[in-house]
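Thought: the user wants the 3D structure for the chain below. I'll pass the sequence to the structure tool as-is, report back what it returns, then summarize two notable features.
Action: structure_tool
Action Input:
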Amino acid sequence: MATPMTSSSALGARRQQRNETKTAERYLWFGQFQVDLERGELFKEGSRVRIPSKVFQLLLALVERPGETVTREALRARLWPDGTFVNYDANVNSTVNKLRLALGDSPENPTYVETIPRQGYCFLGNVECGNELLKTSGALTIAGADAVDGLLAQQEASSAMARKRISGRFAALFNGWGAVILLCGVLIGVGMVLLMRRPS
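Observation:
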């Protein structure tokens, strides 16, 4: 029977994991992005991209197996172990969407995260690893604390603008000729009703 892990043994396991990471490669690179495995951070062209822990874990699950399908069940088991009570499907979808936003990726035209229908997800980028952080033209800077939330707000604003444009087009249609056609239709309808009710 396994004994439950205490907080001190959990810290010891984490230190051991860090030491193993130090002897292995510490950094991963793909496209404009770098991942610091030891510190659990994502960088884009030298600037830190703040992402939630679950999103980072999802990224690791995908970049560890580039070109392979990572099933939704495998992601569920990794991100929400047994005994966690959440809506797994909704949370996997939400976490994947947040990762795509952080990477500037699109489900329709993916660069990094491809959806494999009814199976899971596949990482499309080439992943390299090493022990040194790549030098970039800019200094390392930290993005705003809510970079992902900012991206979500930006996407919502774009959607609102698109809805406004569409409603503006409908309003323009009803100005001028659209209004005349609508009025004619109403008058014809009223005339037909009056003719049908007319006593013979």
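Final Answer: Structure generated. Strands lie at 27-30, 33-36, 41-44, 47-49, 69-71, 113-116, 120-123, 128-130, 141-142. The longest helix spans residues 147-174.
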